[in-house]
Amino acid sequence: QVQLVESGGGLVQAGGSLRLSCAASGRTFSSYAMGWFRQAPGKEREFVATITWNEGSTKYADSVRGRFTISRDNAKNTVYLQMNSLKPDDTAVYYCAAKTRPSYYTATAIVYYTSVYNYDYWGQGTQVTVSS
Question: Span 125-130, mean pLDDT?
Fold first, then answer.
């Protein structure tokens, strides 16, 4: 069982930056792929970014590529989302999620999970509001 706690959300003007953090419980953090998703009012939860469990290979949604950076610190059991050049369309609740590495993948396998249905554990979310 993994518990995820997001922090770092808030109100920022367009063009500004925020860094979200997601702290995970447990001792096997490096065996989880991690993802960030977001959900705006009236919309479905959508993929933002993911990072693999080992060397930290990354994949981004087209809407955030070049502006957002996902990273992880396995020693601190934490994943981050650095968000730059924020736009009003980025306003949403941001969720952190963890995907357990399947036993048929080695620790060096690079696999990207971009669907909400891929993930096993979710945080409670943190609100990000970007004003114009």
Answer: 98
